[in-house]
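dumping these here so i dont lose them again. two proteins, back to back, each one seq then structure tokens. dont judge the mess
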Amino acid sequence: MTDTAGEDIMPQREHEETMGEAHVENHADEDEPVYYVISDLHIGGDEQLEHVEFLDELLSFLKRLEQLDEDAELVINGDAFGLWEFTTLEGIEKFDALVERYPNLFEQLRATGENVQITLLPGNHDHELAAYDAYVERFAAYNVDLVQEQSITRPVGDRTIHFEHGNQRDPNNRFEDFGNPHEKPLGYYYNTLVTSRAGQVSALGRRNWLKDIQAVTPTERVPVWFLSKYFYNEMHPLLRYAIVPFLLVFNLSAIAAIAVGLDLVGVWSMPTETVEGAFGRFGSAGALAFSLLAINVAIVGILVLVWIPIRFILQDFKRTIDRFGLVETEFTVDPSKPYRAAAKDLFEEHPETAVFCYGHTHRPAVDEHDGRLIVNTGTWLKRFHRRQVIAGILPPVFHPTFRLNIVRIAAEDEGVAVEYETMDKPDPAKTDLTFTERLLTVGRVPDPTIPDRVVADDTRAASTSPDE
């Protein structure tokens, strides 16, 4: 696994042809259905979560589907809406709020649904869609077929595709009694108490960033992300710029502190006069720099002496917690392992299945198993890539990107083809990152590549690695 928050490692493919025109020559049968799949839009929520940063792109995509000249179906594979993030509304009231806030979206769904079938599966964030039958009728009025099931299958050539959102593979977001409006898994409480609250107070910050907490995955990275955003966005500028020089030379000071310690115990003689003389060549500026370094070394030395016993205490405390078994599971799901295991079981039980398609983890990926494909549709939310700064021990920078993924699945002469396309979207880093964040990570911008075209056949498809 990489050190970044969901780094994609697939080669990128440019799509120059418009959807519906590309790949026609590869189809084994023009009457075969074609499937377009998106997931994890998370539309809606309290206050700042109401803003949908990709709404224009979504409308553009739906308009393209409206003009398609092929037998196509759009599958929205869970978490289309952030119903968990509405904390002041109950039940079907949330649908009315969605229509009121996004009238253009629902009218475009109605128009697109006249040309292609639109199928909506519930996820965990919009599980209530499976809990109230009234949602089926309401969505039907906009030509959307809401299927109140955890999974569906679709034919593709002489094989099938398995669709599921994937939250049932996640112990923190699984519903033991699917469709029960009163069941609340652990993830529900996190989103209502943390994510929704962030949406309510985000605008109060110096910069409106706290609302993006819903895009931070895995959840264990939220504390580091929060520290990073506080340091670069909320900390008083004078305080931040006073601390930055100290943190930038921390590594150098740590080396110097070790050298001083070795000198004190007589292991190694530190050439203090030589170092001071080197700084002295720069006059008063050099003398000031040497004094600041000396102070820094003293502070670092004290911190190291304090940290050593604290470190041992923390390790002993962790071992005690482990012995008592007070923490049984991690909060978030493994990015790929549960889905690969589930897909392999499904392939064995239903060998006609060519593709296992899921979402939930927000990591676009394609993996191959014995000629069958395990496909993650990713998310349309902002995604963050953790980047260490170029020097010192400053907090890492969480570099934002958008990957508005559209998965296309169709039967072709060579097998069942799975392709990814991304909608164009301006780089959010230009507006989301402060000057300090951009400066300290210069040259460390992530490459937002996505999975390319892969074919499932009866022999063995070319293997590609999942996004971990």
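---- next one ----
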Amino acid sequence: MSESRLAFPACVIVGKHRLTAEDIALLRKHTFPEGIRTSDHVVVMLALNNSCPEKCAEWNTFFVEQLAGFIVDYTYPQGSLDEINVAWIMRMFTTDGVVNSALELELILHVMELSAHVPDELRALALDQLRLALGEDVGGYKLTRATDRKSITRQDVDYLMRVLRSVSEGGVIGVSPIEYGVLQRIDAVTQPGANHQRWGEIMASIELRDYAQPRRSRWLRIIDEEPVVAAAVA
């Protein structure tokens, strides 16, 4: 993406090595005075995130909250997700199923927390990041783990329950076949005797749903994918 397409102050900030709190204040005031509201705004956010190697904590919070709010609240179906949103998320923030950065994984998790409906495929993607960390030593979640142990830790349990909380009720975790398949693959790559005891409790609480979640198709894609994709790969 050419910097000439960015207005001030983004055109100046995009060339910096580190995003600072002062940069975030300028962006809030001049570039996004009402927050992220359009696909053009998404282009700017992704260009900034991809071009500046170092980011302050304020940028991480701003990136996650603003993009998650846009995806959930300012694209159809507002307040929820459908298969088109999920396909866009996977296209933008994964490579061959791997969420490459901890920041992008946090964005996906926050999107799931904000949405009234989360398609099975997105929950399965989030669960699979644990398998990738344990079995293949790759991905954004691997970068956040406090240990390289090939067994389920308390941190991993907390991550799993963050992903599964919306389908957990009354001691039962209702999952789809695609999610159950990922959980089985996680179990297969761990060292059973070394796993945290909560892992066994989680697996014992799993109940396969005997119905499919309704598909939420729509005719019109609200997000203009092409310029956003161009920004992401620039």
